[in-house]
Design brief:
The protein is mostly helical. The strands form four sheets. Strands 1-2 form a two-stranded antiparallel ribbon. A two-stranded antiparallel sheet has the order 3-6. It has a two-stranded antiparallel ribbon with strand order 4-5. Helix 4 packs across helix 6 and helix 12 runs antiparallel to helix 13. The longest helix is centred in the N-terminal third of the chain and has 40 residues. It is globular. The chain starts with a helix and ends in a 23-residue tail after the last helix. The relative contact order is 0.15. The C terminus is likely disordered.
Length: 488
């Protein structure tokens, strides 16, 4: 291994740690805001208690997300200084807007929401959490705009005198179809994560409350929470499927190598089947891989909306890339991403969604007609389902980033942005040594592991603690005259 390998490992490790927390924050913030809205409009006290309960878990998740996210941007100027130098005019703008506008919006209004229970009026306090929810999602969009430039560069030109990419059309950058598709997929996946989180915890608490003889709490508080989460699962699950299909169609045109690697298909073919299980040699020539289970025509449909459409093959993508870039990079560059990682992360990302679907189906059946249950398997299913969309989201992120390799900025097939591309090996800082990266990678891994333990223990502790007594729940300025304080 060299400094490049370690820099890639370090960025991957810190990204995966951070992205464990991101989907829950994106999805749970608007859902908590919706719970509070139901309380304010319907005046049903159980929505106040649920707002407080899940709001507490949201704050823990948000705080740890901020702590792990700060490191991400520093790496662009340190381990990846050549990348930052080449792309800074374009890549830096959305990240700056995210920090100065979206992040400050979400953090400021979340702070007002946390401290304002006993000081702000209901309408103002409710507006604060909705502003935080908007800020969280705006933050996600600006980050995905920056990432989508790496996936599909637009609105830029290459200056051969400076060797840098220069901003040509900012509107084109922020309306990049890759960013719009990625945002819709990320947000719906985040809602799926948050819906599963709510439904899973509520399912566990329903069984626990019934077995403790507190059937009233199970029926009047936790059952509405479970139904709420399960409805979110159903709606967001449909959104994830549709937005994922849209991304697949874009991918087939913009990154055919990633699409080909996701199916481990060697030769370009029409009516390509979707592989369910492939075994054999996972070397990048794919010749010794055998598709054991497959669905006829489905891969072509995912890529082209046509069951008989043309699906790119690995060999043809490699040959096309060699023909385009051999004069610049030589003829020994492997333009196909790691087959095993790309193939399996794609399948696991999709397959893990079955746990959320199973929880929603079981819950909607068991809890119909105002029923509650003490079945232990339902509580276990709820707990088992909670981590699955977290894992699926991270696997999707790994698929997206690993599938782009060996490019850190993937070429755009459109000739109007010709020259705007960069191999990963040319993005690493020339002044960062193997020992520097190794030391920081070890330290960050240990630090993030410690933060992960803190996050897990706090989430488990306050989940088990359950609802606070109704009489202890803070009200608003029209109900109390206590000074603004940290109510948790």
């Amino acid at each position: 291994m060299d400094a490049l390998d370690l820099a890639r490992w370090q960025f991957g490790i810190t990204t995966v740690y951070h992205f464990i927390l991101v989907p829950l924050t994106i999805g749970l913030t608007p859902l908590v805001a919706l719970m509070q809205t139901l309380w304010v409009t319907r005046k049903q006290e159980h929505w106040l208690r649920l707002t407080k309960f899940f709001g507490k878990l949201l704050i823990i998740n948000f705080a740890l997300g901020v702590a792990t996210g700060i490191v991400q941007e520093f790496q662009f100027g340190m381990n990846w200084s050549e990348y930052a130098r080449a792309t800074g005019d374009i890549f830096g703008a959305p990240l700056a807007i995210e920090a100065l506008a979206a992040f400050f919006l979400e953090s400021t209004f979340l702070g007002l929401w946390i401290f304002g229970w006993n000081r702000l009026k209901k309408g103002v306090h409710l507006a604060a959490i909705w502003c935080a929810a908007i800020g969280v999602n705006l933050s996600a969009y600006w980050i995905l705009v920056a990432n989508s430039f790496m996936q599909h560069p637009v609105g830029a030109v290459f200056n051969d005198k400076t060797g840098r990419f220069e901003l040509d059309n900012f509107l084109e950058v922020i309306t990049n179809p890759t960013a719009v598709a990625a945002f819709s997929h990320t947000v719906t996946a985040s809602f799926l994560t948050a819906g599963t989180f709510i439904a899973g915890i509520a399912a566990w608490w329903i069984v626990r409350a019934v077995r403790r003889g507190n059937e009233v709490e199970a029926r009047e508080v936790w059952r509405p929470a479970a139904i709420f989460g399960m409805i979110v699962i159903v709606i967001s699950g449909i959104g994830v499927s549709l937005s994922g299909h849209w991304q697949g169609q874009l991918m087939a045109v913009q990154q055919p190598g990633k699409m080909a690697a996701a199916e481990a298909i060697c030769e370009t073919e029409t009516g390509a089947p979707l592989s369910i299980l492939t075994v054999g040699d996972w070397s990048n020539n794919c010749e010794n891989s055998t598709h054991l289970l497959k669905v006829p025509g489905l891969a072509s449909f995912m890529a082209t909306n046509d069951f008989n459409g043309e699906f790119p093959g690995i060999k043809d993508v490699q040959a096309d890339m060699e023909a385009k870039y051999a004069d610049e990079f030589g003829d020994d560059v492997n333009y196909i991403p790691n087959l095993m990682i790309t193939y399996w992360t794609f399948r696991l990302m999709i397959g893990l969604g079955i746990f959320s679907a199973a929880l929603a189906l079981a819950g909607l059946l068991l809890l119909r007609k105002n029923q509650v249950t003490d079945k232990a398997w339902f509580a276990k299913l709820g707990i088992l389902a909670i981590p699955m969309p977290f894992l699926a989201s991270n696997l999707g992120w790994i698929f997206t980033e690993m599938g782009r390799q060996p490019w850190v900025v993937h070429p755009n097939p459109n000739s109007s942005v010709d020259g705007v591309y960069l191999l990963t090996e040319f993005g690493v800082s020339p002044n960062v040594t193997f020992s520097h990266v190794l030391l920081t990678m070890v330290l960050f891994t240990l630090l993030y592991a410690a933060l992960g333990v803190v996050w897990y223990k706090l989430m488990v502790r306050y989940t088990k603690e359950g609802l606070e007594p109704l009489e202890a729940a803070p009200k608003h300025a029209e109900d109390a005259e206590t000074p603004m304080t940290f109510v948790y």
